[in-house]
Design brief:
Structural class: alpha+beta
CATH topology of the largest domain: Heat Shock Protein 90
Strand content: 5-15%
Low-confidence stretches: 313-318, 375-385
Order of helices and strands: HHHHEHHEEHEEHHEEHE
Number of strands: 8
Number of domains: 2
Distance between the termini: 78 Å
Largest sheet: 6 strands, mixed
């Protein structure tokens, strides 16, 4: 970049121009004031001495004018030097920010500006950049981990499909059995791709908002999952509570509830019950799912909503899980201004409660206590036998 196009030069000219203008106004004002004062001096003598006094005044004004112009010229040069130094001092933190940002690479976001000095506007600018870099680094790390996990999850079904397709082409083994394996692997890949697309849509923020009747939505899901519950040998029970409606994306909310309900059914032993219900606490609507499975260990709770995380990877994969269901659920609920609460103990089952605000942007946080339905179950209506 040419020095003639630098902001330092422009600041120097600005500082120098302001200082020179003020000095010129001051000197001109003094000159005019002195001249007016001398011109208004009365003629006290009334003879030739008045002419001499006037000549002395004019000579003094000429000398003052000469010195004034000289002083202004010297001041202009001095103001340029001082302006250049001051501008450099002011812009030094920006040079540091620029140099650090130039050194940062996409593959290495660990550098930080960490600008020393007082807590002024430039320090806050540097802190803002550092905060942005923190978020970008976290996003890149999450993206790399997500790509690696997705690749790992896809590698297994792709390997299964290729291996069984090769056996079919070679005429080895039972073709029907191998075709079923390929079908299961393809179904698993389709589920994983659907989950990945759902996450992409959530992160893009593309959704259609409307008033969603939660009670009807929960009842429809209970009816849809009745057959799944029967295949698992699990009783699905629906609470007969009224909840109301919330502003949101009906399809996304349906998927969020379905993910939790499917998770509860897959982890419930045969003969157990899964409870599904909804209700309202002040300006929050809750949708709860409680199972009678083995529960969640305290060490596993912080990882529940991580993408591709499984407490028992092999068993969950065999049952069709992708490790994305709960992560998608939390993303959906949070995109609606709510949150997901979990309560569980080993051997005591698990309860998931989805809190959704009745009004978008509710200023009140969701309640911290579980709904009364899950603390002391109300009468339930059994939907499957």
């Amino acid at each position: 970049m040419s020095w003639t196009a630098s902001i330092r030069l422009r600041l120097t000219l600005l500082y120098s121009g302001v200082l020179f203008t003020l000095a010129a106004v001051l000197v001109t004002s003094l000159y005019i004031g002195v001249k007016l004062s001398l011109d208004s001096t009365p003629d006290l003598y009334g003879d030739g001495r008045a002419t001499f006094a006037r000549q002395v005044n004019e000579h003094a004004l000429a000398i003052l004018q000469t010195y004034s112009f000289g002083a202004l010229a010297a001041l202009f040069v001095a103001s340029l030097v001082v302006g250049w130094i001051v501008a450099g001092h002011v812009l030094r933190p920006i040079d540091r920010i620029t140099s650090v940002m130039r050194e940062i690479q996409v593959t290495d976001l660990s550098r930080r500006i960490a600008l020393p000095g007082p807590d002024d506007e430039l320090a806050r600018l540097a802190d803002t950049f550092d905060g942005m870099l923190d978020r970008l680094e976290a996003a890149f790390v999450a993206q790399r981990r997500f790509i690696a996990d997705a690749s790992h999850e896809l590698r297994n079904p792709v390997g299964t499909i290729r291996a069984n397709a090769a056996l079919i082409l070679e005429g080895r083994g039972d073709a029907a059995t191998q075709a079923r394996r390929i079908d299961r692997a393809g179904a698993r890949m389709a589920t994983l791709v659907d989950d990945l697309l759902a996450l992409a849509r959530l992160e893009a923020g593309t959704s259609h908002r409307e008033q969603v009747a939660v009670t009807s939505l929960v009842a429809e899901l209970a009816d849809e999952f009745a057959g799944t519950a029967e295949r698992h040998g699990v009783r699905l029970r629906l609470a007969g509570t009224e909840s109301g409606s919330v502003p949101g994306d009906a399809g996304a909310l349906r998927r969020a509830i379905a993910n939790v309900l499917d998770n509860a059914l897959r982890h419930s032993p045969s003969g157990a019950a899964v409870h599904l219900g909804a209700g309202r606490v002040r300006d929050w609507i809750w949708i709860g799912v409680r199972d009678e499975g083995r529960g969640i260990a305290p060490a596993d709770r912080p990882h529940l909503f991580e993408r591709f995380w499984r407490a028992d990877a092999a068993r969950t994969r065999d049952r069709g899980g992708t490790g994305l269901g709960l992560a998608i659920t939390r993303e959906i609920v949070r995109s609606h201004g709510g949150d997901v609460a979990v309560d569980s103990a080993l051997g005591g089952g698990a309860t998931f409660v989805l809190w959704l605000p009745v009004v978008a942007g509710s200023p009140h946080p969701p309640p911290t206590r579980l709904p009364a339905f899950y603390r002391l179950p109300a009468p339930l209506r059994q939907t499957t036998n």
